[in-house]
Amino acid sequence: MKVFFVKYNDPIYVKMEKLDIMIRLAQQNNIAQVLSELKEYATEVDVDFVRKSVRAIGRCAIKVEASSERCVATLLELIQTKVNYVVQEAVVVIKNLDTLDEPEARASMIWIIGEYAERIDNADELLESFVEGFHDENTQVQLQLLTAVVKLFLKRPTDTQQLVQRVLSLATQDSDNPDLRDRGYIYWRLLSADPAAAKQVVLAEKPLISEETDLLEPSLLDQLVCHIGSLASVYHKPPSSFVDGARQPLRAGT
Q1: Less Cβ crowding at N or C end of the chain, within 10 Å?
Q2: Coil, strand or helix: which one is 253?
Q3: For 146-168, how does the pLDDT look when each residue is reduced to its tens digit (9 = 90+)?
């Protein structure tokens, strides 16, 4: 397999041919190595080669079904690069894979499109394809779709006005779900009253994700280790903080 890895000084036509060969040779026992190479190729400067490398990850997911989750994870990592053409190609590949059957997966896909809408040229087309079956979607997907369309409108208001009006109408007038209606009305009033405030609310900076164990003092962790299996490990507090040490002794006959 390593013989067909792309070298930096390979002509572009050789690089393209090597990609096809790598996909043909991809198997369960070497898929991790192949994905690692393809992910690295996605950082190259040649746009056509990068796009084909991203599409190759999707082809690997189809060929080696057991690795589909790993392939999708690799595509999601590429989306985090925030390079326009990489994000766009990765989103299209994920959408075309058969990994969007579950509501959570579809909602995650819609979130990605809305979150990076300014970097995805056809974000409106992608979201519109979900809007077509709005009433057939799970509530989780509907809520995420509503938010994603509003995000898209705030980022690209000139060409998405009809789309946002359509989704707001579906959420507020054609839905019986109170959560969906309430969110729709909130967005509608925000957009009507103060678009600048709506942008601050909907497009607010996301808080950084941190590991909860890092928030505990090392000395406290040492104490909790000694009390694994007790309420101390549930409360994340030493026993002395919630056990009354001055309890009255039991009397005979009680």
Answers
A1: C
A2: coil
A3: 999 999 999 988 889 999 999 99
